[in-house]
Amino acid sequence: MFNTMMAHLSLVGSQLLELFVISAPWLLLGFFMAACIKAFVKTETLYRYLGGTGFGVSVKAALIGAPLPLCSCGVVPAALGLRASGASKNATVSFLVATPETGVDSVSFTYALMGPIMAIVRPIAAIFSAIVSGLLVGKAEQHAAQVERTDHKKAGGSCCSSQKTVPQPPNYRQKLQEGLRFAFGKMLRDVVVWLMLGLLVAALVQSYLPEDFFTALGDGFLSMLLMAVIGIPMYVCATGSTPIAAGFLLSGLSPGAVLVFMLLGPASNIGTLMIVKNELGARAVTAYLIGITLSAFTFGFLLNYLTAYFGWDFMSALQTHDHAMTTWWEWVAALVLAMVIAKALFDKVLPAKQAH
């Protein structure tokens, strides 16, 4: 029995290590790009462009939110901050959908595990989903019996205020350092548990699920419905959902159904839906759910159709990573990422111990 247990641990462990090593360079690249965005994109700029209603505002909110380095847990306070700063409900929802569904880190990770086609389709589908959801919320608000009116008061400065030394604005190097501290600090701490859990689930799927496990579901509505049922209540970030989705794809699930999971998993969970309901209203949460679900299914069917029409081969990318020899630079990247993750976990656990 002990030997059997060790054999299972060895099988899963080897799959987990291989996934981690292959993914490491792309994850480091993604986090570095997130650091640059954090360093050089001003929050005030986001607030200024997201006022008003209509199609243009939803598009801007989706395009602004898509590359930002925020996961499912981090996007909610950011979206509420936008709302409090004067962003409309449809802009808030578009931002709330686009931001967790994709990002520079998850796109690079998707490319590493599933190839260029899925890495291109995923952010396009996320932006489309965000725009549709925002527009539906805007329409729901137009038909509401009562229109919410919020007065935004600006604090005026006093002409009698005492003079204060104006701090020197940070230079580019300082901004980049601050961005790196955010990306490899707070951001990594927020996603590291889900990232490692996603890799573990992917390792289990690749170890034990037969390659034709999901084939019986086909590429139609049933497989997408199953992924929607799994994804909507699930609390997982875009990066963490990627290896799980790769495992599903390797086990015979259609690319369209995999895309449905990668869109709905990060964009919807019970906590997010309750916050949307409390802050934006029941109509908004209904429109939110309808928008992301219809968009995910639409792109799921479209991806399956295009895959069949053009003969796209997602399995070759997966099998290449599954059987390819890892290179020395991937091992170096994996070592660096492991040290960064260890520090992030240490920083995450230490404050909790000090609190007790």
UniProtKB/TrEMBL annotation:
Q: Highest taxon of the source?
A: Bacteria
Q: Does this entry carry the keyword Transmembrane?
A: yes
Cellular component terms per the entry's GO annotation: plasma membrane
Keywords (alphabetical) are:
Cell membrane, Membrane, Transmembrane, Transmembrane helix
Question: Where found?
Answer: Cell membrane
Matching entries from Pfam families are given as: ArsP_1 (PF03773)
Q: Which InterPro entries match?
A: DUF318, UPF0718
Topology in the membrane?
Multi-pass membrane protein
Record-annotated membrane-spanning stretches: 20-41, 117-137, 191-209, 221-238, 245-265, 285-307, 328-346
Chief subcellular site?
membrane
Family per UniProt?
Answer: Belongs to the UPF0718 family.
Q: What is this protein called?
A: Transporter
Q: Which organism is it from?
A: Methylophaga frappieri (strain ATCC BAA-2434 / DSM 25690 / JAM7)
